[in-house]
Amino acid sequence: MPAPIDFYFDFASPYGYLAAEVIDEIAAKYGRVVIWHPILLGAAFKAMGAAPLPSVPLKGEYVQRDVARSARFLGLPFRMPTHFPIPTQHAARAFLWLNDRNTGLARKFARAAYRAYFVEDQNISEADVVLAIAAELGIDRTELADAMASGAIKDRFKAEVDVALARGVFGSPFFIVEGEPFWGVDRLPQLEKWLAGGPF
C-alpha cells in the first residue's frame, strides 16, 4: 500500500475548507488514502510567535481577496464569515470522536461544518451550532455533546495538536506524504505531481 497523506486542518481556516473539499478526490486518483487531523492554528501561531493572517497589515486584505478567488477557481461556494477568525475546539473534538467511530461520517461532518461557516455564515465556535450540524447528519446530539465535554476527548485533542507541532505543522491546510511537507491549498498541484511520479 502506498503511504497515506496526512491532512492537517483548522475549521477556522478558509484554505482548509477549500482543501477539505478536494483532497480525498485527488488522493483517490493515485490510490492513496488520506488521514485527517484537526489542529488549532492558535497553538502554531504561539509556537512561531506569529499573528493570524487577517490581523497582519497588507497581507490580511490580500488573503480575503485570495480566498474568494481561490474558491471561484475551484468552483466552490464561499462567503467570508461575519465572525473571523474563531476558536474551533468544539468542531475539532466532535470530529475526533466521530472519526474514531466512522471515518466517512466524520468527513461528512467536517465538510458540513466548513460549509456552515464559510458558506452559510454560521458561528461554529458555538457548541450548539456544531451539535445542530451533526444532528442534521443523523448523529445523536446528546451522545456527541457528552463526548465533546469529556476530559478524554479534550486531552486527546491536545495530544493531537502537540504531535502536529512536533511534525512541523504550522498552517492549514498542511499535508505530509512520505515525509515531505506541503503547506497551503496552492501547493496541491505540487502534491499531485509528487503522487503521480514521486519526488522531484
TrEMBL record:
Database matches in InterPro entries: DSBA-like_thioredoxin_dom, GST_Kappa/NadH, HCCAis_GSTk, NahD-like, Thioredoxin-like_sf
Protein name stated in the entry: 2-hydroxychromene-2-carboxylate isomerase
Documented EC number(s): 5.99.1.4
PANTHER family linked: GLUTATHIONE S-TRANSFERASE KAPPA (PTHR42943), GLUTATHIONE S-TRANSFERASE KAPPA 1 (PTHR42943:SF2)
GO-annotated molecular function: isomerase activity
UniProt family annotation: Belongs to the GST superfamily. NadH family.
Domain DSBA-like thioredoxin: 5-195
Reaction(s) catalysed by this chain's protein: 2-hydroxychromene-2-carboxylate = (3E)-4-(2-hydroxyphenyl)-2-oxobut-3-enoate
The UniProt record lists the keyword Isomerase: yes
The keyword Calcium is annotated on this UniProt entry: no
EC top class named in words: isomerase
Keywords for this protein: Isomerase
Pfam families on file: DSBA
